[in-house]
Write a structure and sequence with these properties.
It is a single chain. The chain has six helices and three strands. By secondary structure, the protein is mostly helical. The chain has a domain at 37-120: Winged helix-like DNA-binding domain superfamily/Winged helix DNA-binding domain (Arc Repressor Mutant, subunit A, Orthogonal Bundle). Strands 1-3-2 form a three-stranded antiparallel sheet. The longest helix has 29 residues, at 3-31. The protein is globular.
């Protein structure tokens, strides 16, 4: 690989990072008045979509460690947005499920977030959006594979 090729890859990496920073800032500003963070939203959205889940399985899906997941679930439970219960067959497993209020809040936020994203992507055609999503998915999968091949993977990650 040439130096120019490497510079181009680093430039592309910075462009992806900057786009993610702007999108994350949109989320932060959307969630701050609700006293939620992006992890909280990830948990609520997944539970609203999939229903009750074991805490340990949910952690990897939303990109949190086990300890961070426990803290987040406790925070959401105190606010009445989720409920927890021990497994019927295996008492070591803690299940978390959304309350009606949690589902309603996730749906409201998702609608508002969708409106904001429409304005962000308004000048990008549906075809370009589809292509961008497909390319970023390929980058994620290639990156995960590169981590595995080089022995750098700590865990499968949020998209596993």
């Amino acid at each position: 690989m040439t130096d120019k090729s490497r510079r181009d890859l680093l430039r592309m990496r910075r462009a992806v990072m900057r786009a993610e920073q702007v999108l994350a800032e949109i989320d932060r500003r959307l969630l701050a008045p609700l006293q939620l963070c992006s992890s909280d939203l990830g948990i609520l959205e997944r539970l609203a979509r999939k229903g009750a889940r074991p805490v340990n399985g949910l952690a990897g899906r939303v990109g949190l460690t086990s300890g961070s997941m426990t803290t987040a679930v406790q925070r959401l439970r105190r606010r009445g947005l989720v409920d927890t219960r021990r497994g019927l067959e295996d008492k070591r497993i803690v299940w978390v499920s959304p309350t009606r209020e949690g589902v309603d809040l996730a749906q409201r936020i998702t609608r508002r977030r969708g409106q904001l994203l429409e304005s962000v992507f308004r000048d990008i055609s549906a075809r370009e959006q589809s292509l961008l999503a497909a390319l970023l998915k390929r980058v994620r999968k290639s990156g995960e594979e590169a981590l595995r091949q080089r022995g750098l993977a700590e865990h499968a990650g949020p998209g596993a």
